[in-house]
Design a protein that fits this description.
By secondary structure, the protein is α+β, with helices and mostly antiparallel strands. It is about 40% helix and about 20% strand. It has 2 domains: about 325 residues, BirA Bifunctional Protein, domain 2, CATH 3.30.930; about 90 residues, Rossmann fold. It is elongated and about 95 Å long. It binds adenosine monophosphate.
């Protein structure tokens, strides 16, 4: 039989990496707890129609879509927000607002694999459903900041914008929504020239083109200057002006609440079509791909047949955050417990070794049993190689006294102990 290879774009997480990922996931769960978000678990498989409705051409064209055996057109979820909006439009329709919901799991996109980009990836996704106030947008930024800080990430930066600014300008020119979407997608990929020629061909005025050209060049951390400049440029566009006003309120709230500095980017767009308000991404200097992204989507629930429901959310790329931490060499090794192996000196004592192991586990001490049939010398050698802290040797002579031998592998010392004293000895080192 030939040796199988992993499918392109997929990855294995070996124990150390799996632990890191779960550790980051644990931090995200803790953030959820701190901010009052409750977990829901939605299916990996959703109807294609639901997922395709408003995700944007970029995501739509990269879905793992197929017909199930019943002939339904389905797809593996490329994001969580569509599933959440489906629930809010149906089962959770009458649930009191705000709803604070957390989803954690794997997502699937047929992206071109590269560093930090896989076809299966992991997110923690926070959605705040119901409020239209800027405090809600601020909360999503603040909890994202809390997560980045709590995993130990350094020098991360928030890039913030407002989709209403560019849409306010394009809409005023009477450009069709699909033209606007395509232009915004090009801007998302920083293909500003292509975006401008697209809107020009669609009939945009010279004034609009000049304005867009100026907008895509305005960015910076000096908020009063950047926002002031944006305000001045869109003065004649009421929709865009309101968007700048809203953005200013949000960034002021976050900077006052926790001194979080953000970079405002007037030409910032995001690939997903459903955003209606503030949008943002998080970056670190070591990587040129975003670690998290989110924004406001006030019309999605309605689009799925629910009541008009404002909402704002964020998706944190858990495996990307892990990569960023690896790049920054900032990962704390998650192993807290010292590893213990129990070895029976002879085969006849293997039942006793199991019994001693169970006694230790009952005390909450993680224990591995030697199950390869290795003799003591070989078992000690293996334990050394694997960085095991303690080996418990179960021998006949000691057992008669209700005792075993505890070997400290690092100090290369051993002593005989009563079985009931063993757990305490291991715990206190
Ligand atoms: P999006 O849903 O496109 O806003 O993505 C939100 C976050 O998910 C991004 O900021 C990334 O951290 C992560 N992400 C998106 N696509 C991928 C991918 N192909 N591989 C790894 N992480 C991804």
């Amino acid at each position: 039989m030939k040796a199988f290879k992993i499918v392109r774009g997929m990855r294995d997480f070996l124990p150390e990496e799996a632990q890191m990922l779960r550790l980051i996931e644990g931090k995200a769960r803790n953030v959820a707890k701190l901010y009052g978000y409750e977990e829901i678990i939605t299916p990996v498989v959703e109807s294609y129609e639901l997922l395709a409705a408003k995700s944007g051409e970029e995501v739509r064209s990269r879905m793992f879509a197929f017909k199930d055996l019943g002939g339904r057109k389905v797809a593996l979820r490329p994001e969580f927000t569509a599933s959440v909006a489906r629930l809010v439009a149906t089962t959770l329709r009458n649930a009191p607002k705000p709803l604070r919901l957390l989803c954690i799991g794997s997502l699937y996109r047929y992206d071109e694999p590269q560093k930090g980009r896989f076809r299966e990836f992991w997110q923690s996704n926070f959605e705040l459903i119901g409020p239209e106030k800027p405090e809600a947008d601020a909360e999503i930024l603040l909890l994202t900041n809390n997560l980045m800080k709590s995993v130990g990430l350094r020098n991360y930066a928030f890039k913030v914008g407002h989709i209403g600014v560019l849409r306010g300008i394009l809409g005023r020119e009477g450009l069709a929504e699909d033209v606007q979407n395509r232009a915004l997608q090009l801007m998302d990929k920083k293909q500003y020239e292509d975006a401008l020629s697209l809107v020009k061909d669609a009939g945009a005025s010279e004034k609009c083109l000049t304005l867009l050209q100026k907008m895509v060049n305005i960015r910076g951390c000096n908020l009063s200057s950047v926002l002031g400049e944006m305000k001045r440029l869109v003065e004649d566009y009421s929709g865009a002006s309101a968007a700048v006003e809203n953005l200013a309120e949000i960034v002021e709230l976050v900077s006052k609440a926790c001194n979080l500095d953000v970079m405002v980017d007037a030409g910032f767009a995001r690939g997903l079509e459903y955003y209606t308000g503030m949008i943002f991404e998080v970056y670190v200097p070591e990587l040129d791909i975003a670690l998290a992204g989110g924004g406001r989507y006030d019309r999605l629930v309605e689009l799925f047949g629910g009541e008009p429901t404002p909402a704002v959310g964020v998706a944190h790329g858990l495996d990307r955050i892990m990569l960023a931490l690896q790049e920054q060499k900032a990962l704390v090794k998650p192993y807290g417990d010292k590893r213990v192996v129990v070895v029976s000196v002879s085969e006849a004592l293997s039942t006793e070794a199991l019994r001693v192991s169970e006694t230790l586990r009952a005390e909450g001490i993680p224990v591995e049993v030697e199950v390869m049939g290795r003799k003591v010398a070989k078992a000690l050698e293996t334990a050394n190689r694997k960085g095991i802290a303690y080996v418990v040797l179960v021998g006949e002579r000691e057992l008669k006294e209700g005792a075993v031998t505890l070997r400290d592998m690092e100090r290369k010392e051993q002593r005989t102990l009563k079985i009931e004293e063993l757990a305490k000895a291991i715990r206190t080192g």
